[in-house]
Amino acid sequence: MTQLDFDIGIIGGGPAGAATASYLAQAGLSCVVFERDLFPRPHVGESLVPSSTRVFKEIDFLQEMEKSGFPRKYGAAWTTAQQGPIYSHKWEGMTLDQQVDFRFEEREQPGVDQNYTFHVDRGKFDLMLLQHAQRLGATVYEGVQVQRVDLNDPEAVRIGFHMGHQEITTRVRMVVDASGRRALLGKQLKLLVKDPIFDQYALHSWFEGYDRAALVKHKQQGDYIFVHFLPLTNTWMWQIPISEQITSIGIVTQKKHFAQSKQEREAFFWQCLESRPDLAEGLKKAKQLRPLKEEGDYSYAMQQICGDRFVLVGDAARFVDPIFSTGVSIALNSARFASRDIIQAAETGDFRKQQFSTFETTIRRGTHNWYEFISVYYRLNVLFTAFVQDPRYRLDVLQLLQGDVYEEEEPEVLRLMKMKVKEVEDNEQHLWHRYLGELTASAFKPTF
């Protein structure tokens, strides 16, 4: 019989990998995490959603988050500089405003007993979470890049990597790919499918001394995440508090708008901001702390996210778009759902694909709902703001924005939003027709 080194091998020590390791170590399974970087390291995805709190509570990490000094996030706001008759026109009782917002406390969220989540410095947050997994009993190797996974041996999954010039193999009962957008196992098994619709790119940096209060309606919005619509089609800016003085600023746009050279990208970043003078003026007074960093080609799916003796979690399984701060939330929740099936599989000694069917069904349902919700937003973002304002739909939209997307096959509010988009698409005389975005050629054709 083949000698095993660990029960579970985890590729990647980001939020998905560290949370998975925490759950499994808590359950008494021996697990090893291979992280190619040395933490801390900068990373995008700095604003969380409240569903993350459930994971923090279950792995006994919430107290560490409270001690961290991360800014508390009580809500979110969206702004636009657009003018025109659309803002004085009512359609089926729905009206528009140039700024909409909500607070998480407006809707009671099962399993979440606080009215805020967090904005995080991902360098610090990811390090804290990985160290937490290690304290719970996981073995962690940083600066070790996995090269390949061999699933051919029926008695052991073999994970191959290098330490210096030495080639080493670790034998485990099953493997969890949490390698992020590197998607090591998905690419090795040729499971990755690029999204034919979403092709967004992001440019982002940190700024010190930016006046975040410049566009707030009231003082309590100072700790919100802001999404600012820009005049360029399907282009927007995020504004995320990192500390009292530091703000993360990012521009997200379609690939066709994305400049090639570094100098062109710098110019494009500021041109986008200058399309909203109220934003550009404040940011020019601030100090840029980091060079602009780009993120691109990040929308993809996998033909399968589990199989005999493997599962894919977090960005290694699926990523759509950062518009609703979904990245870390999906990473943490996929770790939560996958761990339940892995623990049960370990108890029976059966690691075949069907043992992970609950995880697969749940995470596919949730990410599909995210995909549809994001499609609504990009196709007709004025509709999104109308639904946020409308008391008939506000709390149902907030449920999605809180991260509770995994239980229903299709939330009713999402069905209604899709129906309204279709009405606008089919009526060229509709006042909202001219505001249809280009990112989706038609509403909600099956993508994968």
From TrEMBL:
<dbReference type="Pfam" id="PF04820">
    <property type="entry name" value="Trp_halogenase"/>
</dbReference>
<comment type="similarity">
    <text>Belongs to the flavin-dependent halogenase family. Bacterial tryptophan halogenase subfamily.</text>
</comment>
<protein>
    <recommendedName>
        <fullName>FADH2-dependent halogenase PltA</fullName>
    </recommendedName>
</protein>
<dbReference type="InterPro" id="IPR006905">
    <property type="entry name" value="Flavin_halogenase"/>
</dbReference>
<dbReference type="InterPro" id="IPR050816">
    <property type="entry name" value="Flavin-dep_Halogenase_NPB"/>
</dbReference>
<dbReference type="InterPro" id="IPR036188">
    <property type="entry name" value="FAD/NAD-bd_sf"/>
</dbReference>
